[in-house]
Amino acid sequence: MYPADLKYTKDHEWVRLGNGDARVGITDYAQKQLGDVVYLELPEVGRKLKKGDVFGTIESVKAVSELYAPVSGEVTDVNRALSEKPEAVNSAPHESWMIALKVSGSDEVDTLLDAAQYSDLTK
Questions:
Q1: CATH number of 52's domain
Q2: What backbone phi and psi angles, to 5 degrees, belong to 114?
Q3: I want to staple 26 with a disulfide (CB 3.0 to 4.6 A). Which of 22, 30, 82, 88 is the partner?
Q4: What's the pTM?
Q5: How confident is the model at residue 28 (pLDDT cuts 50, 70, 90)?
């Protein structure tokens, strides 16, 4: 159910790692809990984040939730198209990245969950 090529957090974000960079989004589980996503607030490029920092908010018809940085790093890109069409998170959550980070806390990557661990967490 959860793509094996992604890593996950207990806060229901996914992370796609590659060459010191990471793309971050929310999991299918998270979008189902939220319901229809209607608004997304994302950070500016260049913002430095520490693991666990709030990097934005996601609003649905049910609730407003904070988004948390899964690892420390600097925001190198923001998915502006997703800001304009936030409902894409509901139809393709594991393809709908929100931010890209230049990872600075490479040891923090080891604390992320794999697909099986995340699946167990959401049972």
A1: 2.40.50.100
A2: -90, 175
A3: 30
A4: 0.95
A5: very high
